[in-house]
Amino acid sequence: MVIPAPQPRSTTHRSPPGEVTCAVCGSESRQVMFRAGAPEQAPDLDLRPGEPLRSTMGHWLQQCPRCGYAAPDISQARPSAARVVGAAPFRSLVSEVAHPPLSRRFLAWAHVLEETGAMHEAAEAMLQAAWTADDLNRQDLARNWRLEAVALWRSGPGLDAEQQVRVVDALRRAEAWDGAADAIAAMLRDQPPEAVRQVLALESRLVESSDARRHTVASALPPPARRPHVAHQKLAGRSSLFGWFRRLFGRR
Ligand SMILES: [Zn+2]
After folding, report:
1. What is the number of other CB atoms lying within 10 angstroms of the CB of residue 67?
2. How many angstroms does the Cα of residue 30 sit away from the middle of ligand 1?
């Protein structure tokens, strides 16, 4: 899913609760231990989770106050992370005052992932940076970071259907209409399952009407012909929505 799962902490960890040792610089700092609960509302077409999880982005990443390293769990780091965090591009990224502080945290994590070769994970983090810009009505930043997320996805290994749909949605929301239409056409050539075609049909309509707004996965479902209240309640139910969502992307 969208949120990088926090790494389980070692049972031999000696820090008191809340104290975390940065894996890059060794500093100790108090950090929130965030455990993601299941969202109750449908996700956006780019899989940004619904509420109540949606509003918790301020807790998704920890950041070391000394070196600026940001990650879901800063006590964990790839071997080459220290080199990346010490280098000039990272230093300027975390001190770029033109970017909102929460956005910088996600950009920092995206940069570490990209520089350590995790391109798809970097794309996720970059998209999450765009979500923080959405929340601040910074469309200029959100558009740039969505396009960067697409570039990162496309620079990694082949994409699965879920990632391809997110590329389509990122292009649409960045108002890259031709790019979105091309990506939709490319997916349709592969004859995807019916549920994916429904999402692509919605994306196609949105692209044709130059609609760059946020829409949820639920709006890609065919409208209930009868008893809309019952159908709506079923859709709003956590298990049925997740069941549908898993079927959509072939997940278990
Ligand atoms: Zn540190």
Report:
1. 20
2. 12
pTM of this structure: 0.83
Q: Which two tokens stand for residue 178?
A: 């031709």
Q: What are phi and psi of 62, to 5 degrees?
A: -90, 155
> Which tens digits make up the pLDDT trace of 148-162?
999 999 998 999 999
Nearest to 120 by CA among 242, 247, 2: 2
243 residue type, one letter = G
Distance (angstroms) between ligand 1 centre and the Cα of 127 equals 24
Helix H, strand E, coil C: the string for 191-202 is CCCHHHHHHHHH
User: What residues have a C-beta under 5 A from ligand 1, the ion?
Assistant: 22, 24-25, 27, 64, 66-67, 69
Distance CA(140)–CA(129), nearest Å, equals 12
104 and 59 in contact (C-beta within 8 Å)? no
User: Distances in Å between the alpha carbon of 236 and those of 42, 52, 192?
Assistant: 8, 13, 26
DSSP label of 213: S
- What would the pLDDT profile of 235-250 be if each residue is shown by its tens digit? 443 334 444 455 554 4
Cis peptide before 6 (omega within 30 of 0): no
CA distance 140 to 49: 22
